[in-house]
Amino acid sequence: MPRTALIAGNWKMNGLAADLDFFDAIAGPAASSPADVLICPPATLLAAAAARCADTGISVGGQDCHAHEAGAHTGDISAAMLKDAGARYVILGHSERRADHGESDAMIRAKADAVLAAGLIPIICVGETKAEREAGKAQAVVTAQLAGSLPDNPQNMELVIAYEPVWAIGTGLTASVSDVEEMHAAIRAALPEPLTTRILYGGSVKPANAESLLALPDVDGALVGGASLKASDFTSIINAAGR
Ligand code: 13P
Question: What is the dotted CATH code of the domain comprising 6-240?
Answer without folding.
Answer: 3.20.20.70
